[in-house]
Specification:
The complex is a heterodimer of chains A (113) and B (114). With 113 residues, chain A is mainly β. In chain A, 0% of the residues lie in helices and 55% in strands. The N and C termini of chain A lie far apart (41 Å). Classes of the chains: A mainly beta (113), B mainly beta (114).
Chain lengths: 113, 114
């Protein structure tokens, strides 16, 4: 069975600073990996996904994530935080079948002016 | 309307009420999902419908009853709920095919059970 661990339930950064949200996964077979973002009072929006092609995946809004098999990680980064990035971010893993998405508990990102 | 829509956006109900949540997808997808999002807990997959057939039911209590009349609509019928059922209920859809499909989410229904 697969699982996802998001380190840090709350991350706070200053506007313009680097954003790093951590995600580690557990899977016995090559996984598909996703990052979703949830703004207040909204559903989840796909930021990016890893599908076993390039290990560095670029997503929307300037975010990217790197798949590192040796570290079983899929951390999300953005070089310069913007106030509009404040939201909750979810890492998810799927193995074999798409509907078996397993989500992490989420990381709330706060951006300070 | 575009994407995945859900109605109502907010619902307050007593434990003896019967209500229904509605989800509609405008993406031409053939799979739909119900998730429960509670505070401090990961999203929980409740039900999956593929080609209007239920393919997944993750041990959800019978007070939650899904219905998928066609590939564009999904309902969640609620009766005799408990206060711990208060949560955000999210609907999602995807196009099932070989390989990876992305799930697209609606905005959710915020349910409060009194």
């Amino acid at each position: 069975a697969q699982s996802v661990t998001q380190l840090g339930s709350h991350v706070s950064v200053s506007e313009g600073a680097l954003v790093l949200l951590r995600c580690n996964y557990s899977s016995s077979v090559p996984p598909y990996l996703f990052w979703y973002v949830q703004y207040p009072n909204q559903g989840l929006q796909l930021l990016l996904k890893y599908t076993s092609a390039a290990t560095l995946v670029k997503g929307i809004n300037g975010f990217e994530a790197e798949f590192k098999k040796s570290e079983t990680s899929f951390h999300l980064t953005k070089p310069s935080a913007h106030m509009s990035d404040a939201a909750e971010y979810f890492c998810a893993v799927s193995v074999g079948s798409n509907y078996k998405l397993t989500f992490g508990k989420g990381t709330l990102l706060t951006v300070n002016p | 309307e575009t994407g995945v829509t859900q109605t109502p956006r907010h619902l307050v109900m007593g434990m003896t009420n019967k209500k229904s949540l509605k989800c509609e997808q405008h993406l031409g997808h053939n799979a739909m999902y119900w998730y429960k999002q509670s505070a401090k807990k990961p999203l929980e997959l409740m039900f999956v419908y593929s080609l209007e057939e239920r393919v997944e039911n993750n041990s959800v209590p019978s007070r939650f009853s899904p219905e998928c009349p066609n590939s564009s609509h999904l309902f969640l019928h609620l009766h005799t709920l408990q206060p711990e059922d208060s949560a955000l209920y999210l609907c999602a859809s995807s196009q099932e095919r070989e390989g990876l499909d992305t799930q697209y989410f609606g905005p959710g229904t915020r349910l409060t059970v009194l």
